[in-house]
Each structure stands twice: as structure tokens, then as C-alpha cells.
Amino acid sequence: MPSIDKALFQEFEAIVGATHALHQDELVASYTTDWTGRFRGHTPLVLRPGDTEEVAQIVSVAADAGIALVPQGGNTGLVGGSVPLGGEIVLSLLRLDGCEPVDVLAQQVTLEAGVTLARAQSHVSPFNLDVGVDLAARDSCTIGGMIATNAGGINVVRYGPMRDQLLGVEAVMADGSTISRLEGLEKDNTGYHLPGLLAGSEGSLAVITKARLRLHPHLEERCSAMLAFNSVQDAVSATAQLRHSVLDLQAVEVIFRGAMELVSDYISTSIPVGSDASAWLIVEAASTSDPTDQLAGAIDDLGTLVMDVAVGRDSASRAGLWQFREKITEAIATQGTPHKLDVTLPASRLAEFVSEIPQIVETVDSGATTVMFGHLGDGNVHVNVLGRGGLEPDEGVESAVLTYVAHLGGSISAEHGIGTAKKDFLHLSRSEAELDIFRAIKSSLDPEGILSPNTLIPYEHQ
Ligand SMILES: Cc1cc2nc3c(=O)[nH]c(=O)nc-3n(C[C@H](O)[C@H](O)[C@H](O)COP(=O)(O)OP(=O)(O)OC[C@H]3O[C@@H](n4cnc5c(N)ncnc54)[C@H](O)[C@@H]3O)c2cc1C
Questions:
Q1: Strands 166-173 and 206-217, how do they pair?
Q2: What is the rounded average pLDDT of the residues 251-277?
Q3: How confident is the model at residue 93 (pLDDT cuts 50, 70, 90)?
Q4: Residue at which a domain ends, from 38, 68, 95
Q5: How far apart are CA 288 and CA 372, in angstroms?
Q6: How many percent of the chain have pLDDT more than 90?
Q7: What is the pLDDT of residue 457?
Q8: 410: in domain
Q9: Quick one: which atom of ligand 1 is closest to the CA of 161?
């Protein structure tokens, strides 16, 4: 990659202003290491544009000079896609933090890419509306980053992932041109769905600067329950029944034994039910009227499938149950730097997967520990592998786990994306014909490979 000489530096600085062109080591440090601490890059420059026009100018200058950029939002991504591993310029979108007035008639909102999820939630909540995707990184992750990773989270079972919330985008393309379609038409069959293409593109096709999101009625009445199970298969069967019988099902999360012990220690709170269980579900129903009877009836119908149940009706007791799920990522981070393998399995192979994985990992690295939890309503398991003493597990663990996922007909990335972490394994989930199409899209939209060249589908010079 060409280096940045003084003239080029000044050109970038003139676009964003001196205070938003960062190059001193201590100022760029937090932009070059990812949330997990596993991916550490380096950069000559962090640019913090204040609006779409500045983003377009930066990309245009970078394209002319052949300099690569990595778009970055809240830097909470878990697959190394948000940091400059090849010495790229970091394009931080955090200053694009404007929220347009909520369109109550259409139940939609247009937000700039750097708006955090928590801010978006509080912007729409006075109108009794909610953003369809919710996740534990809500205070830091941004709308742009969530679209770029097609984030999932705890409500996918009801509303789908970020792609399903997306009615339009404004984005700066790799040549510096801007596309914008933010009218929010629910029906618009006029060719290729570009927002859908950018959802999950991980910064490799365009820089998202604004998004038009579909909103959902805020469901004030909620009931949560923690269910303990003797076996993983029982938890999987119960999930299928609950999805069928609870019309207002909002979330079905799973915590497997090792993760439950770890989080219980971390939050210094004993496990509420089934201390010797193999798996726990945290289930939530949400509606405009009290869904307690609906959920309680469905849990009753599970009969002996369930060992024990704790119900949370008011917000304090619900939060008491949810903390076991929401604090797991932090609890694991206290043990070291895990390899995070976020995968989806067909429901019919899930129990087999959970039972085999610890053994598969130990065969490659006898000192490694496996901690698993996830979004069972979507068949999504987060496999966290910690090496001995919290260090990196042996090389080969990742390949062994992901190969097994592919063997069972699953996907090697459920919701975190491919980033840098999984790019060498993409062929396990995608055929050569599909990868050819990916490469054709990349080289057509970003012919010089200036956008995130080390992410998702590595850029190859023609
Ligand atoms: C505690 C915790 C819990 C999490 N829980 C979940 C979960 O339940 N479900 C889930 O799906 N994910 C989860 N994640 C990971 C998830 O990917 C991110 O939280 C979120 O989607 C990324 O948003 P961000 O703004 O931090 O993006 P970043 O980390 O900054 O970037 C992520 C990727 O998007 C690209 N990107 C960022 N902004 C833009 C933009 N404006 N235009 C183009 N490309 C861009 C980057 O280049 C990078 O490839 C979790 C992370 C943490 C730390």
C-alpha cells in the first residue's frame, strides 16, 4: 500500500480539521485494537469526519491515492474487521451521530451511521417504538456497524436480524460517489436490493453513512423465565415447542453448563434454578397486554421436559434473570482472550454439536476450555475457546470446530461476520461458485480494493 506523505496527510486534514485527523500513538491506540484484544493493527491516521460530504471527500482522495481505509463504528465487532490490520487509515464514523425526527406515520426513523444502539433506542422510545435488534454492546455499537455486520442479538426470533430492519441506506461508494435511498418505501421492487447487499458486507463494499430503519411497537408488558434442563436435547425440543405455542415470544437464549458456572461466579450470584442442570433457557414474552399466562401455560405444557423454572414478572426480577445471559461475554473476557466461534446449527444437529465440541477441542489442545452459550431460538451457538491459562488456544482449534460445523450442515458465522478471523474458512460455508460471485461483486464495487481489503473476501489484485 502506498504510504501517506505530508501532502496527502494535509489533504485529509483539510477535510476533517486538525482535531479530527489523529496520528499520535496515544490517540490512535484505541482505534487499532479490537474489543477482544485479539486483533491489534497499526495505522498512520485516524480520520473522524463530521458528515457524509466529508466521508465522500476522504474516500475520493483515498481512491485517487490508492490508500486503503477501514470503516469503524463502536469497535465492538468480534472478528477483527474493524481494526487496521494492514496499516490502513481508520475511518471512524462516530461523529455521524444525528437522529432525524421519528416518522410516526410510517413507524420508521433515519439515523446517521455513528448513532449508538442505546441512543437510537432512547430516541424512538418516547413514541412507544423500539429498534428491532437489541444486543449487549448497545452502549457502544453503532447503527452503521450493526448493518455492516448484519447484527442479530436477542430478538431475532421475533424481528429478524439487522437486514430485516433496513428500508434504505445512504452510503459512500469506493470511488467517493454517494448513493441515497431513504424514502422508506415498504414495497419497492425496482431491481437489486442494495441495502440488503450492504448488510453483512463488513465495510468491504461501501461506507454506510445513514440508514432508514423499520421500527416496532414498544411492548411494555413482559414476562421472563429461566428454565433448567437435564439435557441439551430437552432444551432444543422445548425451544421448538415454545416457538410454536408462544405467539408473543421475544427471545429464547441458552446458557450451557460451563458458561453458567462462569457467569454465576462473575456476578457473585447463585444459579436461580437447576444448579445441576446441563442447559438453561432464558425465555421472554412481550406484548401490549400481560403475557404471563401465555408464557406460563406454554411452560406448563412442556411437562417433564423441564427440571425447574424461575419466573421474572417485574423489571427487577427479569433483570435478575437476564444478567446471567448479558454478563457472559464480560465473564469470559476475565479469563483471557478467547477464540470466539459464532456458529449456527440445524436444530436437529444442535445437541450432538454441543456434546461433541469439548472433545473435538481437547483433541487439538488438551489444555483448552470451551464455554458455550447463544441464541437457541435461531440455532446460534457462541463457542468460546480459551487456551491454557487464558492464552491463545493451539492453532488448529478453529479449523477443527468450523469443519465440524460445516460437516453438520451449519454456518461458520451466525451473526458476527467473517472479518479477518474467519476469512480462511469461508469456503467451508460457501461454494466456489458463490465465492466467485463475491469476488465479482467486490471487484466491481471496489476495483482498487481500498475498502477493508483484509476483511471478508480478501482483495486480490487482478
Ligand atoms: C458485549 C458484546 C456483545 C455482542 N453481542 C452481539 C449479539 O448479540 N449479536 C451480534 O450480532 N453481535 C454482537 N456483538 C458483536 C457485534 O458485531 C457488534 O456489537 C456490532 O454489530 C458492531 O457494531 P460496531 O459499531 O461496534 O462496529 P465495529 O466493530 O466498529 O465494526 C464492525 C464491522 O463493520 C464495519 N463498519 C462499521 N461501521 C461501518 C460503516 N458505517 N460502514 C461500513 N462498514 C462499517 C467495520 O469495518 C467492521 O468490519 C457483540 C459484541 C460485544 C462486545
A1: antiparallel
A2: 97
A3: very high
A4: 95
A5: 33
A6: 94
A7: 85
A8: yes
A9: 11
CATH number at residue 28: 3.30.43.10
Give the pLDDT band (50/70/90) at residue 234: very high
Quote the ligand 1 centre to 89 CA distance (angstroms): 18
Q: Which atom of ligand 1 is nearest to 116's Cα?
A: 25
Ligand 1 mutation pick, 141, 164, 380, 413, max ligand atoms within 8 A of CB: 141
Residue located nearest, by CA, to atom 53 of ligand 1 = 76
Ligand 1 mean position to 201 CA, how many Å? 12
Ligand 1 centroid, distance to 148 Cα (angstroms): 7
Q: Which three cell numbers stand for residue 435?
A: 465465492
Whether the full predicted model's pTM is greater than 0.90, yes or no, is: yes
Rounded to an integer, what distance in angstroms lies between the CA atom of residue 27 and that of residue 171? 27
Q: Is residue 371 part of a domain?
A: yes
Residues 6+ positions from 293 with CB-CB distance below 8 Å: none
pLDDT digits (tens, 9 = 90+) for 137-160: 999 999 999 999 999 999 999 999
Range of the domain at 121: 108-217
Task: Give the number of the atom of ligand 1 that is nearest the alpha carbon of residue 148.
Answer: 34
Q: Evaluate if residue 279 carries a pLDDT over 90.
A: yes
The closest of 267, 302, 275, 290 to 219, measured between CA atoms, is 290
Ligand 1 pocket test: which of 36, 82, 342 has the largest number of ligand atoms within 8 Å of its C-beta? 82
